[in-house]
Amino acid sequence: MAGFVGLAPIEPLGMSEIRSTLGSFFLGLCVACLWLQSPDAFTVLGVASLTAAVVRFLSSWFDRSISIKNWGGVAVEALLGVLFLLNQN
């Protein structure tokens, strides 16, 4: 994932940071939602995903880094956000 988005660690600490920030944090959120089966948990994850999509869109616009990877990220984050918010059973 880090290479896909253009990040590269220069020390072992950097690899730990990339793994925890780009991987395990979101994995933990998803596992918590599946375990708790709480509408509130899915709402939090949905709002966080939609916020990530909006911030990625704005960042790519203002930073002039619009690319297919950024548009794909916006689409995936927005889709996941909507799906999490719809899971209110």
How would you sum up this structure, described in words?
This protein is mostly helical. The protein has helices at residues 12-36, 39-62, 68-86. α2 packs antiparallel against α3. The termini are far apart.
Whole-number average pLDDT?
86
Strand fraction band? under 5%
Quote the distance from N terminus to C terminus: 32 Å
Task: Give the helix/strand class.
Answer: mainly alpha
**Overall morphology:** flat
The biggest sheet, with number of strands, parallel, antiparallel or mixed sense and barrel status, is: none
Helix content, binned percent: over 70%
The beta-strand count equals: 0
Low-pLDDT windows of residues: none
Count the DSSP helices.
3
Core attributes:
89 residues, mainly alpha, 3 helices, flat
Give a summary of the structure in a few sentences.
With 89 residues, the protein is mainly alpha-helical.
How is the topology of this model organized?
Elements: H1 12-36, H2 39-62, H3 68-86
